[in-house]
Specification:
87 residues; mainly alpha; Methane Monooxygenase Hydroxylase, Chain G, domain 1; elongated
Amino acid sequence: MPNIKSAKKSVLLTRVATEKNRQEKTALKTTLKKFEAAFAAADKEQADSAYAAAVKSIDKAVAKGILHKNTAARKKSNIALKMNKLS
């Protein structure tokens, strides 16, 4: 445990940021799982809306620094390929 006041504050801020990032990652994973479920069910309409939500959440994660841009590009490419298979 730190002794200096600024170090104590830094620890608290890091905990808050870590929790927020964890929540964002969990929400991202949930949207991706919803798309995967719609894809597995071969439900075109539900997959369309889930695809749009997934791409939006991936882009938000990159903007917030939660995902690397290349990781986001790979994830979007993979779900786009699956989306094209449904068409």
